[in-house]
Structure formats: C-alpha cells, structure tokens
Predict the structure.
Amino acid sequence: MSEDATHERTLLLVDTDIDYLNWATKHLEADGIRILRVDNSDNALKVFEKASVDIVIADIAITPDDGISLLGQIKANHPDTVVIITAGFPGTAQIIKATQQGAHDILRKESLTFELRSVVENAWQVVESRRSFGEHKQTMPDSTGRIQVIGVSRVFQDVFKTVGRVARTDAPVFIFGESGTGKELVANAVHEYSSRRKNEMVALNCGAIPDNLLESELFGHEKGSFTGAAAKRMGRFEQCDGGTLFLDEIGDMPLPVQVKLLRVLQEGTFSRVGGNEVLTSDVRIVAATNKDLAQEVREGRFREDLYYRLNVVELRLPPLRERIEDIPLLAEFFLRKITKKNGMVRLRLSGEAISVLQQHKWPGNVRELENTMARATALATSDVLLADDIPIGEALLTNDPLTELLSQALKLAKSDARLKLMRTLVFEALELSEGSQEAAAKLLGVAELPKPS
C-alpha cells in the first residue's frame, strides 16, 4: 500500500445486501474518497490484488468465507488496512475473535445509521496516522477458546471488545462488577483468548479462605510451617506457572497478604510459608471485586500501590438491569441448560413472561436470573411459561429459597425428572446442614425430610 499522503483514499464495502450497499455508499461518499463494492469474500480478495484499499467494511455473514475469516486474510497480507466488521447480533466469541484478528471496530447493523460515519471518520484518522509515521499493526493470533457468555446489548459487547484487545497482552486486568454479573466468566475469556490458554487458569476466592490460610493457598507452605502442615504443599502461583491466576473478591484480602502479593508482582519472586527457597513464577493476574476499591484505599483497607499495580486494564461489568435486551437470551439459555440436565421437556417463554423478566430489577444479576429459571422449570405445568409461572417477588430475596420449591416438587413428583429434582434439593439441604436431618428439614421448611423412592 502506498504511503503517499496524496494517494486517493479507497474504501471497500463487502455485503450481500444490495440495498445496504447503496445506502452505505451514499452515506459515506465524500470528496477524495473512492468507494468500491463487492458482494462476497472472494471478490473482496480479488479487489485487493488490483486496488490499494485503505478501509474495509465487511459484514460478518458474507460467503464463502465469513467476515472474520476475510479479516484474518486481509490482515495477514495488508496489516495497515483498517477493517470494520458489521453484524446483526454478534456473539461475544465473535467480538473477541474479530478484535484479536485486528478489527478496528464491530458494529451492529441496527446502529449503523448513527455510528457508521463517525467510526469511519475515526478510521480515516488512523489511516493518515499510519501513513505519516509508518506504523504497522501485527496480526492478532487466532484463538480456539470457548466461553459461554451471552449478550447482545451494546454495553455488554463493549466489554468483550476490550477483552479481545487485552487478552493478547500480559497486562493485569481488574474486573469490577456487582455480585452475580459474571466476573469469573469474563476472567475465563481473558485467559482462553490469550497466548496462555494452553496452560492452567486457577481461580481463588480471597473472601472464602480464612486469613491465616490465604498466604499458604497463594504461595504454598513447607512441612511443619504451621499447625496442620503435615506435608509440603504447592501454592497457586506454582500451580499456574505460565497461566493465569484469577483472584476473586480481592477486596477481602488481608493487608499482610497484600504486601506479599505486591512483592510477587514487582519482583516476580516469592517463598513458601516457612521456607527460604526463592521461587519464580510467570503468572498473569486477573483480579475481581464488587467493592469500591478506591474507597477501600482511602479508608486504609487496601494498599494504594497494590491497587495501581493490579488496575492496569479495568473492566466494569454492567448489572443485568442495564442490559435488559439480554434477559430473554439469557433466560432461554438457562431454560435449555436446566431442562437438558434434568431430562425434561424443553420449555419456552411467552411474551408476557419475557415482559415480567425485563421489568424486574435483578439485584442478584445473572445468578438470580438463573435461579429464577430453575424455579420456573420446577414449577412448570406446561411447556410454555406464562407470566404467572415466573417466580419473581420478595421470596426470591429471602434466605429461605428452597421451601416453596421443595413443596411444589413434592406435589409434582410424578416423573423421574421431578423425583430427581426433589432428591437434589434434599441432598443440597443436607450438605448445607452438614448432614443434620433436623437442620436440613428446618432449612426446607418441612417437619421432616421426605424420603422419595
């Protein structure tokens, strides 16, 4: 591609929709810009052999190779070409992969009227900047990772555009979000779409481990280093060498452990509890919290230097109430997952049921939605869920979530699936009650535990 600043600017549109091509041509035409149009990926590549193209706007659903495949081929031979992908409802995996392959942006078709011109104007600035300074962007590595994260809302897909960009680096990532927003799933995405995906990712909930054991969990310990240390034990930093360590609820990490974590991040070395051997580990840190860590820093509960060391790339996950267009997709996904697991007939959501779901504020976010779908499945009397079949209300916010579900399961226990559900509830209550039948019955709100045959 010529780097002559006087070179005529060339834009290529690739789409099977002729009406769209006509609209986009008129929408983007300007003095000094040549617009070429093709209707498939083969023709797009042929154009590259004959023309000096600066910007490509390609639909993800073109044939014979889709838009992301075309993107990869273009970037392999023309790394300076700016490629913009358009799609009806791009999935999160598509967004990440397109970003990794070097897409300038991924735009939803329904928003092109408002966004296309401004995005293309920004792309022209990138083109001119590269011509002036001779910058060359490397092709992003391909990825084979798979994640189960669902969302078509713009606010949610913007998160995964950032994931696609940051995954190719080793920069620490800090994920902020309310409880139940899917922080661990996003951490998994960062790992699975990175060059570390062949190595292990280890997750550790800092708030679920006693303070006196957290240091040992992270760094390991030597035999006899404390009461109960009957043998030498490997810590998480050794376990995921070359991989990713996900530190969930890091805001609950005690200050003494914060000091030792900071040392590892600064120097790359650590020692097991009770040991003198200096160990090294190549670990990428992804941390998450639902706390306001800036406030925790101000109040002296979290080290400021550690906060800035971890918070290199920040991802803020939107609560479910801010992405209501994702609720029907998520609800359908959970219905399929639950009915398949329990061998039940697949359920469908009525329009009224979807409306009820979208009107709820979801203080428990995606986790609450999944639990709601589990309840609705257990209580269903037909294969279509109506508004009255959606168990949303104050009961969902109490600490007694199993009572109504158990009683309904007992009434409906005429099939293997219902019996299986009832047994699952009983076993769960027993586990929570550490084997006490009396406590389990109290948890379930019944006089005594049922004994399903």
Summary: The chain has 18 helices and 14 strands. Residues 1-6, 133-145, 394-401 have pLDDT under 50 and may be disordered. The longest strand covers residues 9-14. The chain has three domains: 9-133, 155-316, 321-444.
